[in-house]
Amino acid sequence: MAQLIRIDTAAPPFAPAPITDAEAAAMFRAALNLFRLWGVTDDQAAMLLDLPRRTFARWKAGAIGRIGRDGKARLSNLMGIHKALRLVFRDPSRGYAWIKAQNDAFAGRSALDVMLGGELTDLMRVRRYLDAERGW
């Protein structure tokens, strides 16, 4: 008589691979384009990335230094916000404009105002909101 063998079907816990330095540098370059499309000033961009203004200027000029774990998380959230906006709005220009528009979900402030709070959690708050809006 055949015996049944128990097979473990539980999925292993998800553990994302760390963002490499090359991936972080590519995200930084993409973020520069995103900041331009959002109409973000260099001072605001430095605040979003939690970088001193001079460091941001050097990196923007092409001398990208080592991006730490917090910086990689900030860049990842910015890319997630961009992706969500592209999914929520069919017209990209509406998504770019949304960043500066007043929003009841943020007590009348814009998403940019929220993100300029300077904390990583401020970026995460906007990303979570957009992910919920797009139903993900």
From TrEMBL:
A GO molecular-function annotation: DNA binding
Domain Antitoxin Xre-like helix-turn-helix: 19-80
Coiled coil: none
Residue span(s) of domain Antitoxin Xre/MbcA/ParS-like toxin-binding: 84-135
InterPro entries per the UniProt record, alphabetical: Xre-like_HTH, Xre/MbcA/ParS-like_toxin-bd
Record Pfam families: Xre-like-HTH, Xre_MbcA_ParS_C
Entry protein name: DUF2384 domain-containing protein
